[in-house]
Amino acid sequence: MSTVLENGFTQRYLMRRVSKDIDSVIATLPKAVIQRAARRRGLTLDEFLADYQLEYVYDGADEGFWARFVQREKTGSCGPEDLK
């Protein structure tokens, strides 16, 4: 994993709270990253956003983490509607 991160594209983004009542923070992903992931799966951007979610992998021992796109489970939901 560290090799991928050392040789990967680096861009910094601001973070913001979802709300004062929700214990989450939002960071922006470049649209090009999402479009490329959708294209590799033969999906439109909207299809990809509906069918996939971002999964974070971290061990809690340091400040870093790794993220990947995973297909949503059909039994659950993890969309903007869940933040209401």
CA-CA gap between termini: 35 Å
Q: Using DSSP, what is the number of strands?
A: 4
Order of helices and strands: HEEHHEE
Residue share in β-strands: 15-25%
Topology:
Blueprint: H1 2-7, E1 15-17, E2 25-27, H2 31-40, H3 45-51, E3 52-57, E4 66-71
Antiparallel strand pairs: 1-2, 3-4
Describe this structure in words.
The structure is a single chain. The chain is α+β, with helices and mostly antiparallel strands. Helices cover 27% and strands 21% of the residues. It has helices at 2-7, 31-40, 45-51, and strands at residues 15-17, 25-27, 52-57, 66-71. The strands form two sheets. The chain has a two-stranded antiparallel ribbon with strand order 1-2. It has a two-stranded antiparallel sheet with strand order 3-4. 0% of the residues are buried.
Short description:
By secondary structure, this protein is an alpha+beta fold. It contains three helices and four strands, in the order H-E-E-H-H-E-E.
